[in-house]
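User: two proteins, same treatment. go.

Assistant:
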Amino acid sequence: MVLPQDVGLRAPWYQSHPIYRFRHYPDMDEMRHWGTPYRLRTNNQGLRADRDEPYRSPEEIRVVVHGDSMTLGVGIDNSETFVQRLETALRRRDARVDVLNLGVSGHGPDNEYLLFVEESLRYSPRICVVAVSLMNDLDDLTRPDTAFHLDDERLTYIPFEPPVSKRLAESSLYRWVASRSHLLIAIRYALFDLPEYARIEAAVASQPPPLSLAVAIYREFVSAVRNERAVPVILLLPSMEEVAYRRAITTERPKASSMLLREALTELCASLGVVCIDALDAIAGSRVPFDALFIPGDDHYTAEGHRIIAALLEEPVAAALEDLGPR
C-alpha cells in the first residue's frame, strides 16, 4: 500500500549515469517526506544547493563533500545539513569558501569515488571530505551493481548499463505522471522496487563484508584527491546502533561491518597521513537526547545531529584551509 505522503517519498529522484551509476536529478524543488516533510532542492548539476555552481570559480576556495543520504541530508532542509552549516561557519573566517554537497542518497564508496573522478574534481576543490556512513557503506559494496572488484589486490572496474526499466522511468512523461499519481507509484514499487530491494538484501546477507575492497577504494580515492593537489579528509559517521551502544541505551553491540570499517579506515588514514574525524564521541557525548538525534522511525540524523557534525568539522577544515598554498 502506498499512502498519500509516499508520493513525496517514492517520487523519482535518481538519474542514471554510465560510470558512477546514478545521482539526483538537477533542478528539483519539491516537498518530500522522511518522517516529517522537508524541502529538497538541487541545482542545475544535481547538487543539493539553492544556487547553481560553475565548474570554474577562481575567486572561491572550494571544499567538496562526498557521501550518501547522511551527507545529502535526507529528512531535513538544505540549510540544516552539516555541509551547509559548515559553509556558513567557514565563511565567517573567509568569505571565499564555498562548500559543495555531492552527497547522493544510496551512494557507496565506489559511487562516491567515481563521482569525484568524473565530476567533483572539475570544481577544482582544495579539500575533499569523504563522509563514510558506517551504518551501511561496507554493505553497499555487496550490491549487484557494485562498480569494482578486486583482481590480485587491484581494483577492476565493472562496466554498467542502466536497465531499460530505469531508462523508461527517466522519461519526462513518466516523471510528470509519477510525481502526481499514487497508483503509478504503487505499481512501480510493487513490480520493480520491492524485488530490487529483496535482491540487494539477499546479496548483502549471502556475502561476507568486502573489507579489502572498501579499503582499496578509499586508498584510490585518497590518491585521486591528492593528485588534484587537494587535501583529503575522512569523516566517520556513526550508526544509530553505535550511538545507542555508547550511551548504554542498549547492550546489543553494533553491526560487525560498522566496527570493521571504522577500524580499517582509522588504520588506513594513519598509514597515509590523512586527517580522520570520528563523529562518534561528539554525537554520543552530546547533551542532545537520543531521540532528538535521529529522525523518528529512521536512522538518519536530524538537524541537531547535523549541527554537531558541522561543529566537529569546522576547526580541522579551517586548519587545513589555512595550510593551503597557492594552487
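Protein 2:
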Amino acid sequence: MESLPLFINKKEMVLASLVLAFLFAFSLGFQYFKYKNLTSQPLHVTNAKVLNHYEKHKSNGRAYDVFKLKSDEGYTFYTVTWKKKDIQIGSLVSVKFKTDKISFYKYLKNFFARNIFIKQKDNIKNDGISKTESYIKSQHKTQDLKQIFSALFFATHIQKITRDKIQKLGISHLVAISGFHLGMISAILYFLLGIFYRFFQDRYFPYRNIRADLAFVVFAILFYYMYLIDFYPSFLRSFMLSLFGFFLFSKNIKIISFATLLISMSFVLVLFPRLLFSISFWFSVSGVFYIFLFLKHFSNLPKYLIFILLNFWVYMMMLPIVHFVFKVFTPLQLFSPLLSMVFVVFYPLELALHVVGFGGVFDKYLLGLLNLQTTFYAITTPFWFLVFFIIASICSIFNKWLALLTLLLSTTIFFI
C-alpha cells in the first residue's frame, strides 16, 4: 500500500503550523517564567552536574579553571575559578552565582555566571556505568583510545588533544553519540530480538504484530540507555524524532519527505526551545535534509550505489555549513565519507568485541590512523555565500539538475 502524504491539503498544513506555533510560544513562555524565577534574586544557589572541566590561560599566562555545569533545574551554564579545583567530570557540585548579567537570550543559549563558591558534593556517576566504563577502558592502553571508546559508548568527555586528532580526520560525528548511533543500535536490537521473537511467535502468538512489539521493546531499551548516559542532548533529539517517525510509519504516512522533516524539526523545538541556539541541532537537521534531497532525486539508483554516493553527497553538501562554524580543514578529512561507510561495520563489531573483552584488537591500526601527519588549513564560509547556498539547496528540492549544480557550488568553498 502506497504511503500517504503528511498533509492532504494546504489547510491542514496551515492548521498544523498554527498549532505548533502556539505550542512553541507556550513552551518559550514557560522558559521565560523559569528565567524570571532564576533572576528574581541577585544570587542563586543550585546543585549541578559537572559536564566539563578544563584549564585555560589568559594572555599574561595566568591559569584558571572553566566549568560547564548542568543544573538540576534544567539549564546549562559556564563559570570559572581562579583557584585550582580538583573536581572530576561527572561530579555533583553546589554552586552559588550572580544573576545580574543574565539576559533571557543568554539563558536560552547557555549563559556564563560569576560564582561566589563552587563545592563538590558527590560523584553521581551510576555505579553500573562506572564499572562498565572501567571495563571498556581496561581493554585499551593509550589515553586516546580509552577516551574515544568511552565517549563512543557512554557519551563521556574527550580532552582537547584527543578531540583535535578526531577533528583532523573529520570523524567527530562518528564519535559523538547521535542519531547515527541510535539507528545502528536500533537495527542491531531489532535483528537480534527478531530471531527470538519469531521463534515464539510461530508457536504461541502468530496474531501479534512483530513490528509494533519489537518497536516497543527497542524503544524501551533505548530509553533506558538514554537514561544511563544522562539524556545526552543529541541522542535525546534523535530518540524523540525516532518516536515521531515510528508514529508516522504506523499511520502509513510517508516519512522521507521535506514536510515531515519540517514538522519533526518544529516538534522537537516545541519540546526543547533551547535547541534554537544549538549548533549540533542545526547540523543534524541539515544532514537529514541533504539525505532526503539525495533520495528524492536519486533513489532509483542501485542500493549499493546509493550507500556509497550518499556518504560523499552529504559530506560535500555539508562543507559550506560546517566551515561557517569550524575553520579547520585537513586533506585527511576528504576520506571522511569512506570512514563513515567503514563505521557501519566497525561500530557493531567493536561493540561485540568489547562485550567479550577483546576491544583492543584493532588498537594498533586506530592509533596509526589518529597519529597520521597532515597539513592544517583555515577555510571559512562567508555569510553571504552561506545564505546563497542555503537558498540554492531549498530550490534544489524541485529540480534534480539544480541539486547537482548546488553540489558543484559547495566545492567552491575551497577556492573562496
